[in-house]
Amino acid sequence: MKAFVVTVDGPSGAGKSTVSRRLAERLGYTYVETGALYRAVALVALSEGCSPNDDNGLGKICKHLELRFGNSPKGSRLYAKGEDITERMRTSEITMLASAVSARPVVREHLLDVQREMGERGGVVFEGRDMGTVVFPGADVKFYLDADLDTRALRRYKELAETDEANSLAEVKKAMKKRDEDDSSRAVAPLKRADDAIRIDSTLLDIEQVVEAMVHYINERTK
Ligand code: DC
Predict the structure, then answer these.
(1) Cα-to-centroid distance, 215 and ligand 1 (Å)
(2) Poorest-confidence range of 54-58, 159-163, 202-206?
(3) How far is the CA of 109 from the centre of ligand 1 (A)?
(4) 115 lines ligand 1 (CB under 6 A)
(5) pLDDT value at position 188?
(6) Among 48, 62, 114, 164, fewest CB within 10 Å belongs to which?
């Protein structure tokens, strides 16, 4: 069977990462969390004191980024210049900064090539915001995963409650709404459903039900 490129886009908290990882496991594919790439740029920018509006500085950071995805018993990891940045790139500060740097064309252009290279041979589930619209417009199967804002905020709130960052549900919801608005309204590659993407609403579905629905669509495509 041909190794497909599968894309999963949607707003934050819709369950994209968990679902995409499981889907990739089911298909025997590689899973690529593209948000991690923007988070890595944000983390380096913060550590080097580069403002998210400084295109020159961001360009240099992108040029010298050496990113590598890896696996460990703790799950998938991201290394920047050999250093494991997986935990550090998940803070609320980096989350908002990643959204800011992702609006800069210089960053998107650089990461476009990086992502396309990873998809060259197929057999990959790409998860992000513009996978089906910009990075892989010719992807074999495209999904757009959504859920209502309250449900998404509650999911993120529960995730954060397991870390040291104690935010109230109202704060989490406000930050999520702002980030989705920013990601959807930016000039370059905004978050939106590709015309040919299958929309799945995960508000009332659990992870396994979403993965099952996706596997079903993919099997239909291979018939
Ligand atoms: O998926 P995530 O929450 O880790 O993504 C962090 C930010 O990166 C998100 O707010 C927008 C940006 N992003 C993007 O612009 N395009 C992608 N394909 C993935 C993420």
Answers:
(1) 24
(2) 159-163
(3) 14
(4) no
(5) 93
(6) 164
Best of 7, 99, 115, 156 for a ligand 1 pocket test (most atoms within 8 Å of beta carbon): 99
**Measured between alpha carbons, how far is 188 from 134 in angstroms, rounded to an integer?**
10
Q: Whose CA is nearest to atom 1 of ligand 1?
A: 35
Architecture of domain 5-218: 3-Layer(aba) Sandwich (3.40)
